[in-house]
Design a protein that fits this description.
This protein is α/β, with parallel strands linked by helices. The strands form three sheets. The chain has a five-stranded mixed beta sheet, sandwiched between helices. Helix 1 crosses helix 2 and helix 6 packs across helix 7. The longest helix is centred in the C-terminal third of the chain and has 25 residues. It has two domains: 115 residues, 2-Layer Sandwich (Nucleotidyltransferase, domain 5), CATH 3.30.420.40; 160 residues, ATPase, nucleotide binding domain (Nucleotidyltransferase, domain 5, 2-Layer Sandwich), CATH 3.30.420.
Length: 305
């Protein structure tokens, strides 16, 4: 049995999978914001509670914002700031009494979709998170490629490609730079675009709903978002040329994003034609926790299973 934990900023989720990838148990609780010790205790309670209920012990994989620094061994770059500077993998191993495997949540998302999700048939998969932030993960032959500095896939903190004059110099990003892709493609980025046109504050889903009903300003905002998404994905394709790009996160549920996205990408990518599939995640908001469970790959389903 595999147990996955998705350690998010607002919720902690546990999922148990059998060897065939079928869900045995799933539940979530709120995250104790800012309290590191309480977070460790909550993870332990979820794991031990799942094992008691199911009557067996499992391997444990953890999906978390940020990554383990190759330099210090600490968590870095996490928007759950209580984790930064902590030996999270070591501390969780101690409270659970066993080894754990820990990976960035976007990497886990990409792994989940590559193992038995939207990209199960593909060799090279780039997983994209479009939500409160913008993240990404790279999986090749069902193995996460974290990179030498543990930042592979962090396309959200590259500058928006081919910016227009109106897009320069760009918005402030929490990373300290200006004009990052994340500031344009996050939910807040779409909201900012609509506000600039309408003077109204709406969520990304509300804007998408208005656009679907024919609202002109919402439609314009969404088209601008799609063009920026296409530019940003084209720059990824120019470097990685993946077989499949899988979209996850809250904004991936906006179905209008998938309409003509391939032709938009083709306008910007350095090729005479683009065959890259851009697909919606199969496992939705369960992909991160499923990928965490699959960090222990010894019994993963074979291709085509």
């Amino acid at each position: 049995m595999r147990i996955g934990i998705d350690l998010g900023g607002t919720k902690i989720e546990v999922l148990a999978l059998d060897d065939a990838g079928q869900t045995l148990l799933r539940r979530r609780i709120p995250t104790s914001t800012g309290d590191y010790a309480a977070i460790l205790d909550a993870v332990a309670d979820l794991v031990f509670g799942a094992e008691k209920e199911l009557g067996r012990q499992g391997t444990v994989g953890i999906a978390t914002p940020g990554a383990i620094s190759a330099k210090t061994g600490h968590i870095k770059n996490s928007n759950s700031t209580a984790l930064n500077g902590k030996f999270l993998d070591r501390d969780l191993s101690e409270v659970l009494g066993r080894p754990v495997r820990l990976e960035n949540d976007a990497n886990c998302f990409a792994l989940s979709e590559a193992v038995d999700g939207a990209a199960a048939h593909a060799a090279v998969v780039f997983g994209v998170i479009l939500g409160t932030g913008v993240g990404g993960g790279l999986v090749i032959d069902r193995k996460i490629i974290a990179g030498h500095n543990k930042i592979a896939g962090e396309w959200g903190h590259n500058p928006l490609p081919w910016p227009t004059l109106a897009e320069q110099p760009g918005h402030d990003c929490y990373c300290g730079k200006l004009g990052c892709i994340e500031t344009f493609l996050s939910g807040a980025g779409l909201g900012r675009e609509y506000y600039a046109r309408s003077g109204k504050v709406l969520t990304a889903q509300e804007i998408a709903d208005l656009a679907a009903r024919g609202d002109n300003l919402a439609g314009q905002s969404l088209e601008s978002y799609k063009d920026r998404l296409a530019r940003s994905l084209a720059s990824v394709i120019n470097v990685l040329d993946p077989d499949v790009i899988v979209l996850g996160g809250g904004l991936s549920n906006i179905l209008q994003l998938y309409v003509e996205i391939a032709s938009l990408i083709a306008k910007y990518a350095f090729s005479d034609g683009i065959e890259t599939s851009v697909l919606r995640a199969v496992h939705g908001d369960s992909s991160g926790v499923r990928g965490a469970a699959w960090l222990w790959p010894n019994a993963a389903p074979s291709a085509g299973a």
